[in-house]
Amino acid sequence: MNNERWRPSVTVAAVIEQDGRYLLVEELTPEGVMLNNPAGHLEPGESPQQAVVRETLEETGRNFAPEALLGMYLSRFFRPATGEDVTYLRLAFCGAAGDPIAGWVLDKGILRTLWMSAEEVRANAHRMRSPLVLQCIEDHVAGRRLPLDTIRADASIYMPQVKQ
């Protein structure tokens, strides 16, 4: 019997729509070049809202202002080449992004950013890093919005851990 507690990998994602098009990143993955929402892992000492702002900046070179929570999504990914089996808990936010910051160098592995209509995203579903990319966009198109204060981060997450 495995006594290790199961822990999903917590990620955040930004769904950014402007003039009917969605901002995506094209990234190099072990499975090839894939499309994704600006997204990444929640790090120690930050709230989910802070994480999505940071990840969007790192991957797109744009400041992001979360306006609403789209939802919480759970998916499982198995990578046959390595045997990696990970369950992801994604917190997706929608909001507005600023103009690209001149001279910004995109995060490692991010090849470029691009704008696609919902129809183009649907037509490229096979190129999505996760089925959650399309699901988040579909939820945005459907008008799903939850208040940002649905997620509350206790002040304790910002305090250094005392090791005993």
Automatic annotation (TrEMBL):
Residues 5-138 form the Nudix hydrolase domain. It comes from Roseateles agri. One of its GO terms (molecular function) is hydrolase activity. Monomer. Keywords: Hydrolase, Magnesium. Its EC number is 3.6.1.-. InterPro entries: NUDIX_hydrolase-like_dom_sf (IPR015797), NUDIX_hydrolase_CS (IPR020084), NUDIX_hydrolase_dom (IPR000086), NudJ (IPR033713). Its cofactor is Mg(2+). Gene3D superfamilies: Nucleoside Triphosphate Pyrophosphohydrolase (3.90.79.10). PROSITE patterns: NUDIX, NUDIX_BOX. The keyword Nucleus does not apply. Belongs to the Nudix hydrolase family. NudJ subfamily. This is Phosphatase NudJ. PANTHER family: NUDIX HYDROLASE 23 (PTHR43222), PHOSPHATASE NUDJ (PTHR43222:SF11).
